[in-house]
Specification:
Length: about 400
């Protein structure tokens, strides 16, 4: 017959284990410990429920014996197939699952502290910090997957029938591996590609990239897919293997600083020196300029007789250079319109005498078509180099742009 004292001891042991975990949780949350121990907060946040579950199961497994149910033979041992053995088997499975859960959450808590510190790194160390963040995020996912697989294997081998089949399963593991590899070829290629991207430093979290003509930042990088947050808050989700088989632009491969340019098309009478001085004066007072690169150059003459001016300016990152370019374009257009209206773009025509005394009006050599609507000013050419500024496929005259 089961002993009432044994069951009472079992219940008290489980309760004591849960109370001990609760006291430990309260200690870690206290100001004295939490203020000095940076790992206390993440441990409490992630390991509270796994800790309760593991402590309770461990305490139950320590005190419980199959004979407590009363189904024992003449020799005092439990009878096979009774409820006592079933409870023992269930407790063993729960113990393996709870320990695996606790180990995974503890590993995530430790890496959360590291990732949080790396997320605050700025300046020259930001690129290296983002690379380490990317690698840690992928490695801990791999570690969690390995722990889950080991735990599932341990659960299966806790059954005597499965242990008897162990030798046969190991003997056929080679053939099963080949079959599984063929069936999961795309999945395995993505897993390998994810590790390759993380440790080859091709892309990192928060990198500014241009993928398939879309500008955005790497928001999430897993072993199977990559999430790109586009400038208009859309999410582009691509398989990891895409980045190992297709070309893409990485604007922050070595640094986040970007050079952008603004194109203006004006008349030959434009005072370039005054325009250059005005740009520099305006850039010095602009908070987005990084105080490094700038210039104004005459880069060409258009077939319609307009002069092409290119103004270069640099900023700390791609969104900043986009806003800086828009501000400088607006300022230069206003400056030319107000200070030098004679330099505004225009088409010239001349009258020539025809036989018989009539006159003919026609375009001068090099001028645009007479009477036709003036074409809008060209702006940054989409699809050019990384210093072209905004995401490709975006009209530079539109009001939309990357979010600040």
């Amino acid at each position: 017959m089961p002993s009432l004292g044994s069951w009472t001891l079992l219940v008290l042991t489980v309760v004591a284990a849960v109370v001990a975990v609760e006291l430990l949780r309260r200690l870690l949350k206290s100001r004295r410990v939490n203020g000095r121990f940076s790992l206390a907060g993440p441990l409490v946040e992630r390991c509270t429920w796994p800790g309760f579950a593991t402590a309770g199961v461990v305490a139950f497994n320590t005190v419980y014996v199959p004979g407590m149910t009363g189904h024992t033979g003449a020799d005092g041992r439990p009878v096979p197939g009774t409820s006592g053995n079933a409870i023992e088997q269930v407790v063993t499975l729960l113990l393996i699952a709870c320990v695996a859960w606790l180990v995974i959450q503890a590993a995530y808590a430790v890496t959360d502290v590291v990732l949080e510190r790396l997320g605050t790194v700025e300046g020259e160390g930001n690129r290296r910090a983002r690379r380490i963040r990317t690698q840690i995020a992928l490695v801990r996912r791999v570690a969690a997957a390995v722990i889950i697989i080991v735990a599932m294997g341990a659960m299966l081998f806790s059954f005597p029938a499965v242990r008897a089949l162990g030798a046969g399963l190991l003997a056929s593991a080679g053939i099963a591996g080949v079959v599984a590899g063929i069936a999961a070829q795309s999945t395995l290629s993505n897993l390998i590609a994810g590790l390759q991207l993380a440790f080859s430093d091709a892309i990192r979290l928060d990198d500014a990239v241009v993928v398939d003509g879309e500008w955005g930042r790497i928001e999430e990088l897993t072993l199977t897919y990559v999430v790109v947050r586009l400038w208009d808050e859309r999410r582009l989700i691509l398989p990891v293997s895409y980045f190992t088989t297709n070309p893409f632009e990485n604007w922050t491969r070595y640094e986040s600083r970007v050079i952008g340019h603004v194109l203006l098309y004006v008349d030959w009478s434009v005072p370039v020196d005054e325009l250059r001085a005005e740009l520099y004066r305006r850039l010095r007072d602009h908070p987005l300029w990084d105080q490094k690169d700038w210039s104004v150059q005459v880069t060409g003459v258009q077939p319609n007789g307009l002069v092409e001016l290119r103004a270069l300016m640099s900023a700390s990152d791609a969104p900043s250079v986009w806003d800086l370019k828009c501000d400088m374009r607006e300022h230069l257009v206003s400056y030319v319109r107000e200070k030098y209206p004679e330099a505004l773009p225009r088409l010239r025509v001349e009258e020539t005498a025809l036989p018989g005394g009539s006159e003919r009006t026609g375009p001068r050599p090099g001028a645009g078509l007479l009477g036709g609507p003036r074409a809008p000013y060209p702006d940054d050419v989409a699809g050019s180099q990384a210093d072209d500024g905004p995401p490709p496929k975006v009209d530079a005259d539109a009001d939309a742009g990357p979010a600040r």
